[in-house]
Amino acid sequence: MTQPTPIRRVPDSSDAVPEPLRTALTLAAAGVPVLPLRAGKAPFGNCRSCTGNACGGRPNMKTAGPCRCPGVCHAWAAATTDPDVLTSPAWSAAWRRAVTVAYHPGAAGLTVVDLDDTAAVAWARANLPATRTVPTTRGEHWIYRGAMTSRNGVRPGVDIKSTMAYARYLGPGTGTLTGLPNVVRALAVKAPPAARPASRPVSLPARSGDGRCPHRTPVFLERGIAMAEQRIAQATNAVHATVYGAFLAVLSTHGRCGCLTDTHVARLFAAAQAKGESPRHCTDAWANARATLGL
């Protein structure tokens, strides 16, 4: 006689399971792809096999789901609804260190309008149709039914989080989900760029000597790159400006001495893309920082 398939039980408060994991399993059971966030509200860093997308990442990085490695890699693309993945040894270790839960709105058919302050909330109340709202530390999340392109900094204090992005789960919220309106979709449409002089090539300056920084130690360079990655990862708004500022800081110190390598640049670009920046945005920010410094 065929045995019935057992029903997976979501752990309750009596189980020795971290609270973020209990929340994640509940969301996953409802079809919402989730992932853990560490201190600083940032995703866990890639494992060694996936550093710098050496593994190739997800196909085109356009769909959610676990990486081929067992770790919590590739930020939003790691989000999953698979309870076996969520409770696997590698993910369990991350949940024990997690401070909160994030989800991939686009994969759940949702769009989050992230309003970062009271001024942004006032703008939304005057210009956007009412929908489900969730209070945040300084503002609100307005959640609409439907997915769209994500884009940060669409106006002061406003980010769009949907496809290829993650949003913190801060509770079920209040109000009824409204279909994604055109006024929100329009926020992610870029205006044609103004005419500008041809930009300089993005290539790095020629290296000198053996490639070591002539005025600082290699440890100083590594610390500078790590600090820039952290600065980008901890950005909660104005991501474009934060990325540009981080690139500018690295180039102002190491842009002329020839110690920067393609690997260093790839690390900075990967950190920016994990926050929702596109490869084109990264290239433009790098080129603008070089031009500002006359490199």
Q: What is the β-strand count? A: 10
Average pLDDT works out at 82
Strand-residue proportion: 5-15%
* Terminal CA distance: 75 Å
- Biggest sheet details: 6 strands, mixed
Helix content: 25-40%
Helix and strand succession? HEEHHEEHEEEEEEHHHHH
Task: Supply Rg.
Answer: 21 Å
Q: Helix count, per DSSP?
A: 9
**Anisotropy-based shape:** globular
Ranges with pLDDT <50 over ≥5 residues?
1-9, 195-209
SS-based class = alpha+beta
Question: How does this structure look, described?
Answer:
The chain has nine helices and ten strands. By secondary structure, it is α+β, with helices and mostly antiparallel strands. The strands form two sheets. Strands 4, 5, 6, 7, 8 and 10 form a six-stranded mixed β-sheet that branches. A four-stranded antiparallel β-sheet has the order 2-1-3-9. Helix 6 (218-233) runs antiparallel to helix 7 (239-254) and helix 6 runs parallel beside helix 8 (262-274). It is globular. The model is unreliable at 1-9 and 195-209 (pLDDT under 50).
Briefly say what this structure is:
This protein has helices spanning 19-29, 83-86, 89-97, 118-127, 182-185, 218-233, 239-254, 262-274, 279-293, and strands at residues 34-38, 42-43, 100-103, 110-115, 132-135, 140-145, 151-155, 158-161, 167-168, 178-179.
Jot down its keywords.
single chain, 295 residues, alpha+beta, 6-stranded mixed beta sheet, 4-stranded antiparallel beta sheet, 10 strands, 33% helix, 14% strand, globular, disordered N terminus
